[in-house]
Amino acid sequence: MGLRRYDHIKQNLAELKAAEFSPFELLSRRRLVEKLIELTLQGVPVGPPNTVAGLKNLAASLGTIDTRDVKVVVFGGGTGLSTIVGGDSRSLSWIDDPFKGLKKDFPKTKAIVCTTDDGGSTGEMLKDFPLIGLGDIRHVMLSSIRLDLLVDTFGLSHEEAHSVASRLFTIFNYRFDSQSLTLDGLLAREELSLGQLPASMAQKLSELIRPIFEKLVFRKALRRPHCLGNLIISSAIYSFHYSSDEVVGAAAICEGLRLIEGIIGVGRDAVLPCTATPSLLKVRYSNGVVVTGEKKLGSAKRGYPVDKVWVDFAETQPVILPEVERSIAEADIIVLAPGSLYTSIVPVLQVPGLSAAVRNNKKAIKVLLANLWVQAGETDLSIDDPARRFYVSDLIKAYHRNIPGGIKDLFNQVVLLSLEDIPGSILQNYAVEGKTPIYLDRGRLWAMGFPVIEASIYSNDELAAGKVKHDPARVSRALQVLFAAHQYVDDDERERIELPDAADQQISSCIAVPCRRYEKIIASLADKGISEADPIVEIVWRHWDIPVEHLGILRGVCYIDQHEWARSQKWDQVYSFYDPEDRLIKIREDMRSSPRFELAFLVALGQSLLGDYALKKEISPLENSGETLGKVYHLHLRPESHRHTYFDDSALRQYLTLARMNQAKTSSAYFTRVLNGQEGFTPPGLLFGLTYAWYLENRLAEHIEYKMAISRAEVSDLVPEQIKTRQRRNELTSFFRQTVFGPSASF
Description:
The chain is an alpha/beta fold. 40% of the residues lie in helices and 13% in strands.
């Protein structure tokens, strides 16, 4: 599009640059484009009238920027994306000013949303629907409601439109966990009354809410805790999906979202999923552990930096909506929104074809809106140096490592919230809460080829309340100035440092659709007498890395009264084990109400994979000249043809070697371990169970976490045993990644 409308800005710039004393020196920022943005956001600085007069003219010119026809594409997920599009629509403060942000200044904004969410109501929906995650889509959809569309479509005044947005906020964010909820009971609640909405809007929403209580496909969902907005969106999608047995296709998703957009005052195709294919996020930490699930990454405290993330899809070729590709190709501005590093931008751009589509758009201004705060589990540890805090350059290098083809041509500007005007007392309060900013290493970024734009794009209202958050109106204003001024402000040519090799397109595993996995879990456990209401079902479901096949060895679970618990606890206090005689997991009864129940079950489930591998186990004293020097643990393997185990003979022997069992020269079925008089010992079966639980969630197994901590420590070549110990720990981790939890974790 032409930019002649901005010639007055060019003239103002030329006049100011020609002045003997440049008025720009009154503006504190470093680069000219930063000064222009700051002039717009903070106003004309104090100075001599004849000096600031030109700045006033320029500010006035910048205030006339019209970007209604500018096409913007924003990538992201959840809070970060919704905030800049139109405000955080899960926050009660949103209803105070629901019509600001990119959607106001750039009404042709398209938000392309991450779909790997697996927590909260979205996670519950994945149990029942062969559908992408909808939670972030709902969040952004609500944020995208536009004043002009409500006014024009429904003939509302501005005050009435504000009231409608407030009511939609309540309806779409309403959460329930009552299994006895009925349609009449829901609509009878005053806060959910549709009567305060325009008649046509109320009628159409009612037509989407009613099937939730009447159609068979929603029956199970109503027994779970849910967000009503997610169910409304899924109802819209299912109105175009005619088979409950198939994965919901792109056409139904597209038409369903358009239906919602038309009902609540959102622009057509303003909110688009990055893919129509169900998917799951996988994370590999620097110690080699791979875990699955966006929710687990957010709650993890592994103590190791994230090395790589990738997405597994339910189809070998994930489906991209044509509207997504067209929007990227036509965009004038492409923005990577702030948000969780590994759970927003990276999963979106790992959808095959999306990063290439961004690169192929040569005309767009491409902006990375950098994160402000360090996020536990994601940006609290640097892969380059885990001992220091996270830098903005680490953020960029993480994108480079994890986005196919690296960061080349994905963004050419880095915009971030400036902390210069934030009172130190506020930052100190954040520090007390364990929250620190990501450090801006401006020189490093400059060397990497990225000019930095610091701007006061924070919310003054939030700042007054002691909080530092992006302000959607200020972010939008900054992008307006950047767009209008980019043809007049040139960056110096400079050499760029070489980054490590960029990520290749990940070859992802083809996962089962999550609801199909849930069905298999239910069926497998039902055969063992475990109902869907049993907490064991939720444990297996929550740990995506547990293959359903891991449930195949055991026959059931039984609980034993603590007064009848006869098993020796000499080696542990787990109070659970797998009994190979009857193939039952046995758990002490009082563990059912204990916070350690999950650990107890997972340890025993892990042990069950070894099955009845042991023919005989015994401990004998080790004596010399009548003096007891220690003990010998003896293990005799059952013949391979008579075993019921998850592993073949080679994998079993590999594990026993990692458990420091020594095969006797006289018999391949005989293993020993020598213990000195004071040495503690974790038998191979217990070690396997504890490591199984630790791998899935390290906080569950403190004993193994302690053992594995050597992987984080500096070891000296003066003590070779330390090197051997760390190598054994790393090999044990690799065994669990590659052999126990399967090839999908071996990347």
